[in-house]
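Trying the structure run again after the queue cleared.
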Amino acid sequence: MKIHILGPVGSGKTTLGRTLSKRSKCCHIELDNVMWERRKDGDRRRSESERVEYLIQTFQQYPSWIVEGVHLNDWMKGSLERADHIVWLEPPLAFRIYRVIRRYLRQLLGRESSNYRPSLRMLRDMIRWSFTYQNEERHRFHQELQAYEDKVYKLHSDKDVHHYISELRSPG
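Done. Tokens:
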């Protein structure tokens, strides 16, 4: 199974990706780690061609995979084209902001790890990105995903997510 999960900040992409990866024992790819080369001396933004090559190599190496991230750009369209399912997470704005704040607090307390250093600036940016998605990006997502409408699963709540997971486990 090949699944591409996308949605705004705080929508639950990484949680769902990890859950599905653990259950299906397949490769889990965070698009943030495709975008950024993680290095001890500081992250380096990969070029678009490096990102495309990274994904192609990963897809060749693993017959099943789960890709997740907020990105909906040309460099990752190969993932959308190869995916059996495209899961579009879109819980309500207030719920996403709650999750962003909760994640920030957990990171400060050392209960949750991240690829970035938690800061008030990062929290502010994530909340701002939530509003930007709500007011600007969601329409673009809708337009771009129409090309794949036969395999898009748009999930608005935890109940929808649990139903999707249970349907994946059901035969046929």
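Strands lie at 2-6, 27-30, 36-37, 44-45, 65-69, 85-89, 152-155. Worth checking whether this holds up in the mutant runs.
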